[in-house]
Each structure stands twice: as C-alpha cells, then as structure tokens.
Amino acid sequence: MADPYATLGVPRGATEKDIKSAYRKLAKELHPDRNKDNPRAAERFSDVTKAYDLLSDKDKRARFDRGEIDADGNPAAPFGGGFRSGGFNPRAGGARGPTPQDFEGFGGGDEVDLSDIFEGLFGGMGGARTAGPGGFSGGGFGSRRQAPPSRGANVAYRLKVPFADAATLKPQRVGLSDGSTVDLKLPAGVEDGTQMRLKGKGQPGASGTGDALVTIEIEPHAFFVREGDDVRLELPVTLDEAVRGAKVKVPTVDGPVMLTVAPGSGSGKVLRLKGKGFSRKGGGRGDQLVALEIQLPDDLGELAGRLEGWSDAAPVRNRLGV
After folding, report:
1. C-alpha pair distances (Å), 176 with each of 205, 211, 212, 295
2. pTM of the prediction?
3. Which of 3, 137, 243, 315 is 20 to 30 Å apart from 49, CA to CA?
4. Which of 43-47, 122-126, 234-238, 285-289 is least confident?
5. Minimal CA–CA distance to 180: which of 157, 162, 163?
6. In which band, very low, low, confident or very high, does the pLDDT at 145 lie, cut at 50, 70 and 90?
7. Which residue has the higher pLDDT, 156 or 88?
8. CATH of span 224-301
9. Could you tell me if 215 and 190 are in contact, meaning their C-beta atoms sit under 8 angstroms apart?
10. Residue 45 and residue 33: Cα distance in Å, rounded?
C-alpha cells in the first residue's frame, strides 16, 4: 500500500480530526455499493480503510512515523474487526462482496461512526443482505437491528416557591404544558436550584413519554434570610422592652409565636426558636435565629428628659481598643 497519508490526502502533521474527516469523505465517495461497476474504486476503498486503520491507531501511527513499520505492517482491519481472509478482495477478480462476517466488530472502540455513510447506501441497513456473483442484492447490509423508537422529549419547568412554603415543605401545584396540573411534594432539604423529575409528564413518543424536569426557585422573603437549614430574622424591640424585658410576638415560617426577651437584652443578642427553620435531608428542621435590634423612639424629647443628670459610664468600647 502507498503512504497512508497520501492515500487519505492529509499531511503528516494532520490531527485525528483531519484524518477522520478525510476518511469519512473518501469512504462515502468510494464505497463499493456506489461503485458496483468500478473495480478501481473498490480497490481504493480497501486502501483508504487500511490507511485510516493505521493512522487512527496512535501506537501504529507513531511506529510508522518512526520508520519501524511500513504502510502494510500488521495493520488492524477496518471497522474494529476487519475484512477477513477470503472476504472482500477487489484484487481477486471481484469474486464476492463483503459479508456480515467481514465487518465483525463494527462500531467497537473509538472507530469513526459511519452510520451516516451507510445510511442510504444500504437502504438504512434494515435487513439481511446476501452476496452473489453480481454483488450485493436485497435491501440491507449484513444483519443490523433498526434503531429503537425514540422516547418522548423531556420538558423543563421553573417553579417559583414562596420562602415559607419551601421551609415547611408545603405542596405546590404545577401547571403542565398539556393543560394538566400536578401537586408537587417538595423534598426535605430543598434548595434554590433543586431539580425534581416527574415521570411520564413530558412529551409523548413512540417508545414512551418523556419526563417533566422541575427546577425549584425559592423566592426571597421580605424579612427572613436563610442560613443553611436555619432562618434568621432581625427583630426590632423598643428600648423599654430591652431594658425591662417583655414577651413579644415574633413571625416565623409557621406563623407568629410569642418570644420572651429577657431584661437587659442588648442589640445583637440572638435568641433561638427550635424547629422553626428549613426541613433537613436527614430529618428534623433547623432553627429560627432572632437577632434583637433596639429601636429608639422617633421623638427623643421625653426620653432625654428622663435621662437628665444620668449617664452610663460602662466601658462599652474597650474591646475595640479605643
């Protein structure tokens, strides 16, 4: 065989992609089923497949480039299994065309996908094909199963879920493209971006219906913030509630509850409401963290009057080094 690079019409520095592209082009052009009356084309097809087989094998190509083997040096046959002895041989006087056994192993390894080459050449390769003195007959090449009927496509949805509903796993109703609705049960540990699959709720197809893929988008809240499985809330309290202590109503994702503020509580103090956070994957729920924020009155006149003659000498900024 001639230089395999010359046979494929590519330079020695050609990439794997260039080699594959050149082979696909020549294989379509020279395939025997398109050239039944042209033995020369069949001969070139054989040379092209051998050249591709050598150059697509990294080890063999390197050995050939180093001069360790020639163009015919123990080449693996095309299509992963090969033309076997006694098989397709255009030099033997056109005795017979290739049989299914000549293409044993087709499709294995990293071989080039030639399905588009044979499509149309062999009528879709749908049935058995016999070989005789006149070449191939019938409607197919070898024995090959038809591609299985396609399954229906999946359909993607984005579902906006209110913050409190996500925390408490409140079921959500989803409207589908076919006009139907589904009540969706949120999973424990649900997060923004969690994807849920609804089997058989996609597009119909010959071999089954696709799925609906629902991506959860948790809406932000006006005053709750998520911190892992916990929920954080900045809670305003008045000066007298902080100084004297009080029982105050606090919103949670489950509804308002009463919270005790101890006397002398300062801004930034964090109180914890157990089990008022998000559901955890392993069971149970996180907590609600309530950070107190002392609010002074808008009109400070009366307060200033009450504080007349009094000052707080506590070293409140010592820890800051000032």
Report:
1. 17, 11, 8, 48
2. 0.51
3. 137
4. 122-126
5. 157
6. low
7. 156
8. 2.60.260.20
9. no
10. 11
Topology (CATH) of 155-218: HSP40/DNAj peptide-binding domain (2.60.260)
Q: Cα separation of 80 and 86, whole Å? A: 18
Q: Which long-range contacts (CB under 8 A, 24 or more apart) does 42-48 make?
A: 42/88, 42/90, 42/94, 43/90, 43/91, 45/90, 46/83, 46/88, 46/89, 46/90, 47/1, 47/2, 47/7, 48/7, 48/8, 48/23
Residue type at position 159: L
Give 94-126 pLDDT, tens digit per residue: 444 444 444 443 444 444 444 444 444 544 444
Total count of residues recorded for the chain = 322
* Rounded-to-integer distance, Cα 159 and Cα 286, Å: 23
- Residue 175: helix, strand or coil by DSSP? strand
> What is the distance between the alpha carbons of residues 39 and 135, in angstroms, rounded to a whole number?
12
Check if the beta carbon of residue 172 is closer than 8 Å to that of residue 165. Answer: yes
Chain centre distance of CA 258: 46
DSSP 123-163: GGG-S--EEETTEEESS-SS--PPPPPPPPPPEEEEEEE-H
Same CATH topology for 155-218 and 224-301: the answer is: yes
Domain ranges of the chain: 4-137, 155-218, 224-301
Question: Per residue in 196-233, pLDDT tens?
Answer: 999 999 999 988 999 999 999 999 999 999 999 999 99
- Residue 253 has a CB neighbour count (10 Å cut-off) of 21
| Terminal-residue alpha carbon distance, the chain | 90
